[in-house]
Amino acid sequence: MSAFEDQVTVGISSRFLPGESLAFNRVRAQRFGGDGDTNSSGASLRKDPEGLVEELRSLPCQLPTASDFCAPKERTMADARVGYVSNDDAVGFANMGRLTAHHGVVATRHFVNPLRLGRADVVAMFTLTHEWFLRTSAEYPTDAQFPSVTFDLLHSGGASQTHPHMQPHLAASRYPGKWEAMRLAACDYADRRARSLFMDVALVHAHLGLVIRRTDHFVAFVALTSVSAGIQIDIMGDARVSNGERGAANLNRELGGIFYDVLVAAQLSLGWEGSSASCVFPPMDPFVAKRASMPRLCRLVSRGLYGATVSDVSSNELFETPAVSTDLFVAAASLRVLLQSGSFEGHRDHGPQILREGETGR
User: Fold this and answer.
1) How far apart are CA 358 and CA 43, in angstroms?
2) CA 167/CA 294 separation, integer angstroms
3) Distance in angstroms (rounded) separating the CA atoms of residues 76 and 334
4) Dist CA 242 CA 166 (whole Å)
5) If you ran DSSP here, which 8-state letter would residue 244 be given?
6) pLDDT tens across 196-231, in order?
7) Backbone dihedral region for residue 158 (phi beyond 0: left; psi -120 to 50: alpha; all else: beta)
8) 169 near 103, Cβ under 8 Å?
């Protein structure tokens, strides 16, 4: 009762990015359910907790029950000009129901278990996504300019496949949805202040102690705002190299590495299981990229327990303000310590484990 009477809610809204906000209230962590961070109270809500664990224990593509993505040339379609793309650990093809001018799929080649992804799997998908961008923009130079990627680690639903895969997009004249709104806000910010909005956002998070990882060209931080019922982690690079230039391949490979590290750290430290992410890249043409000033930027959020039958993403998150019960600074400190220690190195070989009831991932 005292927690109810004394509870404090902290609201955060961005002055410069439309719709970016967060409401923090620690009491919400006591609610029944399985979404958000460090929350496994909904473990009993899985469709079949023990059966799901066994189902995902090891599902190599050699099994007869393997997914369609294990035999892409027999069970999927390719764009007539682009064709199939592949490397040692990933394969790319066309999306059956595209949402942008050009919409593909890049899937892992060897394993279909989304909770056992290795670094090689993730880096290979980022690398092959870049190749798909290059090939598609070369074949369609007038309407394949603005690249982005979506990536879900969720149990199957509708027509979606459990097999881990990214969905690369190349839009014709603008970025999809919220990414374009962000780009326009950044352009307005630059016009008014002669500064980069993205650089200033990164600096604010650094000054507040929310940075959790740095590489040569990227910084990862726990974001002050979120789009889901849990914290959001952003990974940001600079905008000086367009996605069609020579140095882009190495940058996107580096992005794949830090993306993997951050995802695994969130699984271990915060108890993440299901997750969703989206990444945006500078335009393919260097001249367009210079005007757009869009960096390489990924955003990751938890989607709760893998295989749960409920979702805590409600009308609050969809239409108003995401409600978060995890202290951003505590989460940042926990992630930073884990990433700096390298104590999850062995985890890369075995993949994240499904949490049992009562565990938090700490």
Assistant:
1) 8
2) 19
3) 42
4) 21
5) T
6) 999 999 999 999 999 999 999 999 999 999 888 789
7) left
8) yes
Phi, psi of 92 (to 5 degrees): -125, 145
Q: For residues 347 and 339, what is the distance between their CA atoms, to the nearest angstrom?
A: 12
pLDDT of residue 2: 53
Return d(Cα 183, Cα 52) in angstroms, integer: 40
pLDDT per position as a tens digit, 281-336: 998 888 887 877 889 999 999 888 776 656 667 777 777 778 788 889 999 999 99
- Alpha-carbon span 75 to 69, nearest angstrom: 7
Q: SS3 of 362, please?
A: coil
Amino acid at 144: A
**Angle, helix 248-269 to helix 328-341, in steps of 10 degrees:** 110
Question: Shortest CA distance to 164 belongs to which of 302, 74, 61, 243?
Answer: 61
How far CA 119 is from CA of 87, 261, 329, in Å, comes to 15, 8, 27
3-class SS of residue 91: strand
Q: How many CB atoms lie within 10 A of CB 230?
A: 30
Rounded Cα distance, 63 and 313, in Å:
35
Give the contacts of 57 (CB within 8 A, at least 6 positions apart).
113
Picking from 214, 185, 220, 228, the residue whose alpha carbon sits closest to that of residue 298 is: 220
Beta bridge partners of 167: 150
Token pair 């001249």: residue: 287
In a 10 Å sphere around its CB, with 0-12 CB exposed, 13-18 middle and 19+ buried, how is residue 353 labelled?
middle
Q: pTM, whole model, 2 decimals?
A: 0.85
Token readout for 190 is 């630059």
Query: What is the C-alpha separation between 194 and 188, in angstroms, rounded?
Result: 10
Q: Measure the CA–CA gap between 128 and 139, rounded to whole angstroms.
A: 16
Give phi and psi for 264, each to the nearest 5: -65, -40
SS3 letters across 329-356: HHHHHHHHHHHHHCCCCCHHHHCCCCCC
